[in-house]
Design a protein that fits this description.
This protein is of the alpha+beta class and 121 residues long. It has one domain: Nuclear Transport Factor 2, Chain: A (Roll). It contains three helices and seven strands, in the order ααββαβββββ. Strands 1, 2, 3, 4, 5, 6 and 7 form a seven-stranded mixed β-sheet that branches. Residues 1-121 form the SnoaL-like domain.
Amino acid sequence: MTTQEIAARYHEMANQRKFIEIQDTLYHEDVVCQEPEKAAAMGMAILTNGREAIKAKGVARRATIETVHSYVCSEPIVAGEYFSVVLKQEVTFKGKPTVTLEEIGVFHVQNGQVIKEQFFY
């Protein structure tokens, strides 16, 4: 698949909250996830290597959420081997007040698979 095709599929599946399917179908097995430095204060690893480790991190993160009130992934912007999206959600974490989270995800595609994802928030 081209970067444009992967971006379109990511957008479609993200808006359906099919995160495991995104990772299983679009990500290389050695994909890298990079979070901002402040993620460590939230108990998240800044660098995660490998599709299975990224999937496990996502499952653990979603387990801390009591309710997802809304979730939206913007239309992707594609440039060469990269695409980016804005991810916005309103959630209630277990035992916490409702918050709105916004981030930009940048994805690097090579040979028809995502090889790196990086988030800014």
